[in-house]
Design a protein that fits this description.
single chain; mainly alpha
């Protein structure tokens, strides 16, 4: 077997299956952790990266980088540089290493996902992983295992994180249901229904809003859908409405359809106080920030130590978190990166533009109340936007 044949075999039989398994594990990664080794994503991501690097070495070439990937690497480098002025060097080193790993994940997908078939396979892997997380949530509900008071999530997950994770699988599921064979159509419809059920059991208001936004894909893609898929999308949306009003457990319905009383701190609870403390920390270091991952240490002098043991203050807003930790300079890189991704989406074909416009909009809404700038899901979608853009504008790189 010569070098090109060995590279093709390694890519087809080792690297790509590992990448698909890695993406499949992302939505439920916290539910399976091996002591001393870490989560399933870590166990799969490392070998996948090594295998992809082996393919590049055997081919003696790599895929030409794009502006989005370069900006992501620049942002990760800035977080590492913030160690020099961080208020918590240990936290910044840890967060910078996380961003380096995320950039490597983006490169891994950029390097290996070059065809429309592989693009759909990764979307299906994420949808399947979200279905698994939803099933784990339903099982915990059936067993009466609450994560918080009458709120449910897959093992290891916070209900808000779990809700957003599965809610973001709805647009890809609706997209694939309109394009796959019979099995794929029914599987994606069932997965979308599972995601809706998991969101209702999580009782997360943010996830519910994101799920409603996710169904806007139906309106954008209406002309490209056949009659059966239009009806199924409307049925799934009706299931969401009925779940909120009638089908969900009483506590979930009450929480999702009402706002907390003023004495409970309003809809955002004590987050306003955290945001105010974060803004004051930003004003003390507006250009450079307090250091990546150092938000808790920056606001503790004003807010004190959290009352709940083992908990730390987080920004509960990805944009504020990046702004406070990385300063105006780092936030500028982050915003520019998001702008490039938005430009890529605008240049896609109509069907894919509808999918990624809705998906990224859902992510942008969801992270308004969650510090998700370092979570894999958003970076996975960024990588898939890049590969979809390349299929349209770098056709010579496509290997069918």
């Amino acid at each position: 077997m010569n070098r090109p044949e060995l590279a093709a075999w390694l890519d087809r039989c080792v690297a790509w299956p590992l990448v698909c398994a890695f993406v499949f594990s992302i939505p439920w990664e916290k539910s399976l952790a091996v002591p001393g080794l870490g989560t399933a994503t870590r166990l799969l991501g490392g070998p996948a990266l090594v295998a992809a690097a082996g393919v590049v070495w055997l081919r003696r070439s790599h895929r030409r980088l794009n502006a989005g990937l370069v900006l992501a690497a620049c942002f990760a480098a800035w977080t590492g540089l913030s160690c020099l002025w961080s208020v918590s060097r240990a936290a910044t080193v840890d967060r910078a290493l996380t961003f380096v790993q995320l950039v490597l994940m983006v490169w891994l997908i950029w390097e290996t996902c070059r065809t429309s078939r592989r693009q759909r396979q990764l979307l299906a892997a994420y949808v399947a992983g979200s279905a698994a997380a939803s099933i784990l949530t339903l099982l915990r509900y059936a067993q009466g295992l609450e994560t918080y008071y009458r709120r449910y999530a897959a093992p290891g997950f916070d209900p808000n994180d779990l809700g957003l994770t599965v809610a973001l699988s709805v647009p890809p599921a609706l997209y694939l249901a309109a394009r796959g064979g019979a099995f794929m159509r029914w599987f994606c419809r069932f997965s979308a229904a599972l995601a809706v059920a998991a969101v209702l059991l999580s009782a997360s208001r943010t996830a519910l809003i994101v799920t409603f936004c996710a169904f806007s894909y139906t309106a954008l893609a209406w002309r490209g859908l056949d009659r059966a898929q239009r009806w199924w999308n409307l049925i799934l949306f009706g299931f969401l409405l009925c779940g909120v009003l009638y089908l969900a457990p009483p506590f979930s319905r009450q929480r999702l359809t009402t706002l907390p009383p003023p004495e409970a701190g309003g809809m955002l609870h004590n987050r306003k106080q955290i945001w105010k403390a974060g803004v004051r920390a930003l004003l003390s270091r507006p250009l450079l920030g307090v250091g990546a991952g150092a938000f808790p240490e920056a606001v503790e002098p004003e807010l004190g130590i959290p009352a709940r043991p083992g908990h730390r203050y987080v920004a509960h807003n990805a944009y504020l978190s990046v702004l406070v930790e990385c300063g105006l300079a780092g936030f500028g890189l982050f915003a520019l990166w998001l702008g490039v991704l938005a430009a890529y989406v605008w240049m896609l074909r109509p069907a894919e533009r509808s999918l990624w416009a809705v998906t990224l909009a859902c992510w942008a809404v969801g992270v308004l109340t969650l510090s998700w700038e370092h979570r894999k899901v958003g970076w996975l979608f960024a990588a898939l936007v890049m590969t979809e853009w390349a299929r349209c504008f770098r056709r010579r790189e496509i290997q069918e």
